[in-house]
């Protein structure tokens, strides 16, 4: 967890993406979302096409947000293990996620032909758009499927770690906080059904944009949980601030030369020689099928993995 990796860059970009999402939320609330349709039609009937245009934009942006958040999870999983089967499953889920995102965007882009019939239906009386059950629930189902795959993927890796049951459960708790996002997404299905069937468009739209925003914020927090766990550990051990962290950790460590420390730094698996071969993967603080994942969530005492010495 000491290095800045792809998942960190992706989550950094999420700060910008999330600001845009918040802007869209306030846009909807500003133009009558959450008010009853009867009230909007009496006071500001011109808001209806504006809300429909915003809804179309939000459909595309919501899917982008879902794509970006899920990629933060998936990129983090590259830190967990270098096992071939795990990496194959990880790449399969990434490909599935990319393909389903493109499919959903195509579905939204082709739901009405021309697309202007979506937000100005009175100008295109002969145009038939796709049923809302298709445009609402097909994307929801694909997103939920990806959520479940992301939730289940790391479980075998974590359960195989060589650690106590209590610590293993703790690591599982950190990594599976994505389950809270799945739960929120399940609650969104209820609101989505109401939105698809309710005649009070503006009222149900207000509920829809709020629950969608809550869903994304919960998912962002869940994607940051491993980093938050490491941050909490440093804060608890008083390792935050100037001159703390690695410097403080190394102050009480045995002094070793650059050469010996370099040999001791990643991957302790010995294969016949005293030092053994080392496999380097960007972003991994410690590599290995079991020890690496454990070290992700525990402050390393000296910043490297000590290699057990064989008899001389």
Automatic annotation (TrEMBL):
Q: Does the keyword Cell division apply?
A: no
Record-level GO cellular component terms: membrane
Q: Which UniProt keywords apply?
A: Membrane, Transmembrane, Transmembrane helix
Can you tell me where the transmembrane regions are? 9-29, 61-78, 90-108, 140-159, 171-196
InterPro entries in the record: Rhodopsin_dom_fungi (IPR049326), SAT4-like (IPR052337)
What is the topology of this protein in the membrane according to its UniProt annotation?
Multi-pass membrane protein
User: Which residue windows does the record flag with biased composition (Polar residues)?
Assistant: 257-282
Q: Where in the cell is it found?
A: Membrane
Q: Where is this region: Disordered?
A: 246-284
Q: Does the keyword Membrane apply?
A: yes
Where in this chain does the record put each Rhodopsin domain? 3-231
The record's similarity note reads: Belongs to the SAT4 family.
Q: Please give the PANTHER family that the UniProt record associates with this protein.
A: INTEGRAL MEMBRANE PROTEIN-RELATED, PTH11-LIKE INTEGRAL MEMBRANE PROTEIN (AFU_ORTHOLOGUE AFUA_5G11245)
Q: What is this protein called?
A: Rhodopsin domain-containing protein
Instruction: Specify the taxonomic lineage.
Output: Eukaryota, Fungi, Dikarya, Ascomycota, Pezizomycotina
